[in-house]
Design brief:
The chain is of the alpha/beta class. It is built from nine helices and six strands. Strands 2-1-3-6-4-5 form a six-stranded mixed β-sheet, sandwiched between helices. Helix 3 links the parallel strand 1 and strand 2. The longest helix has 22 residues. The relative contact order is 0.17.
Length: 274
């Protein structure tokens, strides 16, 4: 190979490497100095669970789930916004928002991801841990009970809901949501372990959550701990603990974006076209 051909080959290799880097770098978490680039920012809807007349779970001393989820939602939205993400909150104050309006809000804003923030509750005060859900039918009684509480529905209403979900399965982003939930759960637990947290990793589960129904994007629901467990409840009011959870959620988003062919490519969903 002569010198001219070698030089040409070297230039082509450099160009190929550069193009490969930019084509594979679909994450848009980093803020851009170019105002036009900001219009391409990833869109995420954060849903602080409950609100207004729906307090959610109640702690040993009257602590309310709706207050914790709002605090976490606000901080998470700010952190994501600081990294160039376009963030929408389903509620920004102590307002009651019907469950069906929350995913409708996300669809209206053409969000790429939907994250619903919750705190668990149970009659068994010793239960602790973090778990992440995605929408699906399940025969697991424990998961159905969590969904029933969050849905504020009777068991008979739940049966009707399951029939509706069955009809929506073909349009649901179940596979993407499952992967998103897994990445987020792992990232939250990893982040919490660094703080010395010893609570249980309850894993990723599926259940018929009404708040996730109809979402046209990967959607998950995070249960950050048990407000009915005195120790968990104290942690849920500790800023360092909440910061670790928020950092974990952001880590899950980053990992999902990096490993997903679904999420965002130059402002267009890959499965939609221009």
């Amino acid at each position: 190979m002569n010198t001219g051909n070698a030089r040409t080959l070297f230039v082509l290799i450099v160009i190929a490497v550069v193009l490969s880097f930019f084509s594979s770098n679909k994450t848009l978490l980093a803020a851009s100095s170019d105002p036009l680039e900001k219009s391409k920012a990833l869109k995420i809807v954060i849903d602080p669970g409950h609100g207004g007349k729906a307090p959610g779970g109640v702690g040993p001393h009257g602590e309310k789930e709706k207050d914790i989820t709002l605090e976490v939602g606000r901080v998470l939205a700010k952190r994501l916004g600081d990294e160039g993400v376009e963030v929408f909150l389903t509620r920004e104050d102590d307002t009651y928002i019907p469950l069906e309006d929350r995913t409708a809000f996300a669809n209206k804003h053409k969000a790429d991801l939907f994250v619903s923030i919750h705190v668990n509750a149970t009659e068994a005060r010793y239960r602790d841990g973090v778990e992440t859900y995605f929408l699906n039918l399940t025969t697991d009684a424990s998961s159905n009970k969590v969904a029933q509480r969050e849905n504020a529905m009777s068991s008979s209403s739940m049966k009707g809901l399951q029939l509706i979900i069955k009809d929506l399965m073909l349009n649901a982003k179940i596979n993407e949501s499952s992967r998103f939930a897994t990445f987020t759960q792992n990232a939250i637990i990893s982040s919490l372990r660094k703080t010395g947290y010893t609570g249980k990793d309850l894993g990723v589960k599926q259940a018929p959550f009404y708040v996730l129904m109809g979402a046209q994007m990967p959607a998950i629901l995070i249960e950050m701990g048990f407000i009915t467990n005195p120790a968990d409840c104290m942690l849920l009011h500790d800023s360092a603990h909440l910061e670790a959870i928020i950092g974990g959620i952001m880590g899950g988003i980053r990992t999902f974006m990096t490993n997903s062919s679904y999420v965002y490519n130059n402002g267009v969903h890959e499965d939609e076209g221009p």
